[in-house]
Inverse folding.
């Protein structure tokens, strides 16, 4: 009899955003006349930048010619894109990252999960609480998380680093021994950022213990404070202890296009093996690359026009974040995030549970949010609001929420 991966049986319920979609669909079926405003999942709504569109059109035309046609591309991504990333995202910020340390992929979500392939199953994994559920669920699938307790909402073998209002949503360095440390800044879901000093402390910690930091900076484009690093590789020593995940999804509206990248420095070795070599081995075996047309579109994000257009769109979302923050704070809610992040993290009123407040806003305001408890026990008592909606919808959602409060 074929045996399944028993780890899947241990996973609680469904993936967070699937459960939210289920509740929203049920509400929509019961209330077909109500117009829902979605500030839940962090999915972009603005069209692609004109520079991206023309580059993709040109790439499609190339594919229609004998000379320009391309079959399988390099699994690691085309050099034109790896070079643009190295230059603009790293070297321009004083981070020494070479094109062959950059692996183009179809998403930071996939890479954050897939990276586990190159690490032993007995590594101890540390995650923030609340946390982007992909880090936790993929480690559970791999057998690294132990057993899940419904009562406490935690896995037995994971080390949780609480991010609470008390510690300014900044996780403390773990006291117990950990091997893999997932960090996400600007943070999903709290919207908090990490200062240079805080990141230096993480790098020093990881280096001194032989741990590896898995740094998700998918939201770096939303950093407005010039003192905040955009990459872990702006930090001295990170080349020896960190892997970074980045994405064009939130930066350039690519959630439907699928293009991201993972940086694995050549200096990063564990057990005498180069992690860059291992990841290359993994990718060449299991992945056939991102479509040429999409990679040409991503390259155009770095053109003069592309950079200006993308900045404008980010500015649009940043303005939504300001509207959400100001509106909810004005209505008496305690809010954080949203200043260097597209996510606003709001405390529920009167000590209400996250899911109860989520349901209340769905039923009475017709606004979809994300319940903080879905990101882990320390998210209980919070909801997350996404700034990726339209400007009018965002303003209306805030008004509707205020009316309910
Ligand atoms: C979120 O809402 O947390 C994000 O959309 C998740 C993702 O990027 O996969």
């Amino acid at each position: 009899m074929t045996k399944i991966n028993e780890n899947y049986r241990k996973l609680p319920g469904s993936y967070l955003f699937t459960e939210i979609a289920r509740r929203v669909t049920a509400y929509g079926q019961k209330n077909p006349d109500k117009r829902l405003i979605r500030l839940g999942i962090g999915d972009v709504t603005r069209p692609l930048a004109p520079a991206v569109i023309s580059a993709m059109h040109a790439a499609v035309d190339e594919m229609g010619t004998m000379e320009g046609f391309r079959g399988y591309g390099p699994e690691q991504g085309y050099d034109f894109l790896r070079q643009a990333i190295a230059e603009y995202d790293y070297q321009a910020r004083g981070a020494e990252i070479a094109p062959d340390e950059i692996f183009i992929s179809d998403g930071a979500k996939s890479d954050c999960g897939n990276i586990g392939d190159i690490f032993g199953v007995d590594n101890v994994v540390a995650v923030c609480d609340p946390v982007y559920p992909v880090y936790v669920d993929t480690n559970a699938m791999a057998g690294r998380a132990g057993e899940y307790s419904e009562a406490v909402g935690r896995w037995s073998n994971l080390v949780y680093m609480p991010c609470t209002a008390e510690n300014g949503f900044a996780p403390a360095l773990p006291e117990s021994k950990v091997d893999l440390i997932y960090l996400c800044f600007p943070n999903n879901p709290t919207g908090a950022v990490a200062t240079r000093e805080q990141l230096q402390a993480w790098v020093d910690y990881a280096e001194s213990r032989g741990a590896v930091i898995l740094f998700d900076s998918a939201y770096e484009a939303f950093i407005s404070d010039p003192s905040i690093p955009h990459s872990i590789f702006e930090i001295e020593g990170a080349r020896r202890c960190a892997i970074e995940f980045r994405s064009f999804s939130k930066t350039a509206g690519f959630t439907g296009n699928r293009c991201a990248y993972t940086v694995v420095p050549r200096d990063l070795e564990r057990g005498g093996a180069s992690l860059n070599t291992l990841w290359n081995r993994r990718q060449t075996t299991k992945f056939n690359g991102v479509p040429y047309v999409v990679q040409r579109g991503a390259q155009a994000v770095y053109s003069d026009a592309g950079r200006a257009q993308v900045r404008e769109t980010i500015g649009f979302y940043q303005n939504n974040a300001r509207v959400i923050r100001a509106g909810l704070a004005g209505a008496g809610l305690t809010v954080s995030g949203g200043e260097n992040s597209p996510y606003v993290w709001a405390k529920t009123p009167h000590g209400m549970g996250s899911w109860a407040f989520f349901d209340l806003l769905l039923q009475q305001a017709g606004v979809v949010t994300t319940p903080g408890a879905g990101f882990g026990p320390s998210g209980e008592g919070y909801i997350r609001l996404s700034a990726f909606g339209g400007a009018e919808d965002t303003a209306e959602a805030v008004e509707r929420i205020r009316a309910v409060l």
Remarks:
- The chain has a mean pLDDT of 97.
